[in-house]
């Protein structure tokens, strides 16, 4: 005859009761402790069209209570402070932080949150275009120069952020590009950024920068060039003292090496002048692709006299 059902598997049931009793004794005898932790602050349901102006706290300090065993099992991210912003409006706002706004694992009680109040400055979001500013460092190889201004494409980007910060921004900046020791033109893609951490780029993250490098121009002085007259009136004669001038011309090395004394003309313009003594500026003409940088002397004394038939 089988034993009545309450006594069926009696040994296993007795073992289970014993284990449960031991666990209860173990847990009930474990000391309750309190500990301070730092928890991340999570901003939920952030309204579209608003931005946080200035620094916003990213963490809060919490006091938690539980058994030593329960607290020892708490991992990073198990305790999170939550701030619900679904109905917030622009302006300086204060939000109470209570233990009920902190998520924690079973067996861990949150007893205090510090700070108890969170202050946030909220502004309307604004988008605006600003110019991209390039920073160039170094010097090209000897005998070479940077020609003109570097070309940045695109030269403007859209930025987004709190209204006051966006209105205050004047530029976006790139990484520094180096031309140190370079003798060929450069073309590079550079990252664009903003110095104000409250601002961000809407879309564009890189720009293309082109820097033109070319051989440096050289200068040569042609000495003792005769000074000629232009636009001397009829029945007039002119004399200059001194009668020669030095003219400095500048251009690429290939061009300047081909320039001779006969290719440059020093002259004074006598248009509209009658008989008399004058102090006039000396001008000079140079070949195409060469420029006149200096004439010495820069002025000269001219004597104009009438000539009778």
Distance between the termini: 166 Å
Question: CATH superfamily membership of the largest domain, which one?
Answer: YbbR-like domain
Number of strands: 24
Overall tally of domains? 3
Question: What is the overall pLDDT average?
Answer: 90
**With helices defined by DSSP (H or I, 4 residues minimum), what is the helix count?**
4
The secondary structure category is: mainly beta
CATH T-level topology of the largest domain: RNA Polymerase Alpha Subunit, Chain A, domain 2
Helical fraction:
10-25%
Order of helices and strands: HEEEHEEEEEEEEHEEEEEEEEHEEEEE
* Low-pLDDT sequence parts: none
CATH class of the largest domain: Mainly Beta
Query: If classified by CATH, what would the architecture of the largest domain be?
Result: Beta Complex
Using the CA coordinates, give the radius of gyration: 43 Å
